[in-house]
TrEMBL record:
InterPro entries: Cu-oxidase-like_N (IPR011707), Cupredoxin (IPR008972), Cyt_c-like_dom (IPR009056), Cyt_c-like_dom_sf (IPR036909), Cytochrome_c-type_DH (IPR051459), NO2-reductase_Cu (IPR001287)
Lineage: Bacteria, Pseudomonadati, Bacteroidota, Cytophagia, Cytophagales
PANTHER family: ALCOHOL DEHYDROGENASE CYTOCHROME C SUBUNIT, BLL4482 PROTEIN-RELATED
Signal sequence bounds: 1-23
Keywords: Copper, Heme, Iron, Metal-binding, Oxidoreductase, Repeat, Signal
Protein residues bound to Cu cation: H128, H133, H168, C169, H177, M182, H323
Enzyme class: oxidoreductase
Name this polypeptide is given: Copper-containing nitrite reductase
Amino acid sequence: MKRSHLPKAIRLAIVGIFCLGMATSCGTKTTNAEILNSLNETAAPAEMPVIEAELTDAPLVPAPITRKHPAKVVVRLEVTEVVKKLADGVDYTFWTFGGSVPGKFIRVRQNDEVEFHLMNHPDSKNPHNIDLHAVTGPGGGAAATFTAPGQETVFNFKAINPGLYVYHCATAPVGMHIANGMYGLIMVEPEEGMEPVDKEYYVMQGDFYTKGAFGAPGLQPFDMEKALDEKPSYVVFNGSVGSMTGDNAITAKVGDKVRLFVGNGGPNLVSSFHVIGEIFDNVYVEGGSNVNKNVQTTLVPAGGSAITEFKVDVPGNYVLVDHSIFRTFNKGALGMLKVEGPDNLAIFSGQTEQKIYLPEGSVVQEMPKSNAPKAAIANNKDMRLELGKTLYAQNCQACHQAEGQGIKGAFPPLAKSDYLNADVDRSIGVVAHGLEGQIKVNGEVYNSTMPKLKLSDEEIANVMTYVLNSWSNKGGEVTPEQVKKAKDKYKH
Ligand SMILES: [Cu+2]
């Protein structure tokens, strides 16, 4: 079985990073020795039937499972980084599980043994991994699947608990990987199976953070500051504005029972999921086994799910929304279920007025400029070092690590970095503008992406002074004036 080229210790370190960010998903019950053992676990017994999993793109889901016995299910999921439409005239570089957002829908049966292959396309710029909430075990598989571009990793798990589960990338910086679209759903059907219905669909919400405001045209880069502030420019179903409207609307016939597998990738927002003009007959709350009856709006947490079921009695257009309603009419969270068939005047009669539910479209509303508090100003080197230390922990540590040691193959070291020490101005340029493409640090090649961070000249001066005076680097002081010059010199 092929594994990550990284030593186990490093894969464990990745889980460590992830645990700092998202403590809830991290196993505290296991020791490192146990984690290592689980990494070596072998496949299912030979007598089990082996099935290649059917994987689907939203809004479709794989066929319900009719098997009455467990099987060994092989899942092959490929990560790609692709430019796709986020809205009309707006493109975005999505990081995907299987080519689109949300990732492929996976469907297995309780007590199936899953052999999970994660491939990372050779053209990817970043390493990725996967944490499936359906997994019982450390990191949900994150440590076992840390995968560099052009690599494939494999791990096995037993789907013990039935339910609808989110999966997502958990590579640092976790928030950025999720914000770029790295999430999807896996349904673990209960042993007794699921009640048959007429239509099943896959709907997953996500919030997106672009440099430009909603509707600003062109290829839009990720905006870290908006993500930290939890102020998305877009909130959408299935990866783009209009993914489920017009010709893309999902459909049903009068009398059909409809089941929606609803997920929320976040990274930040909680969804108040609602279908205008319908009442959910059943909601499997949070994707678990309890059923609530007769529900109008159901909460779908970030990193959570719900299964909603309803019978459609009356023809017309039913609008799927996040009832935090500005998101629907001003940020894109709007889908449509078209129901065709004969009227049922006993249930609904009268003029059907649709206009009020059309999206307000490209009406971009200008937000007042925020008066962000001014950062503290350092007037000597000691103060710069102190402020820089905090800035480093907040802005750099997730990737370059606490001691500046980096992570081999993914994030270059800042400690004793020949690249950094050879040309401080060039490194200031990296911090100011971000960096993409191949560089060599201490003999190792890195070909990855450092995002542009929104730091002021003062902040860059402080963090660079801290970096230069840490971990045996060459020392010195960087001033805001030097930053200003270096920024212009290394503009690209
Ligand atoms: Cu990722």
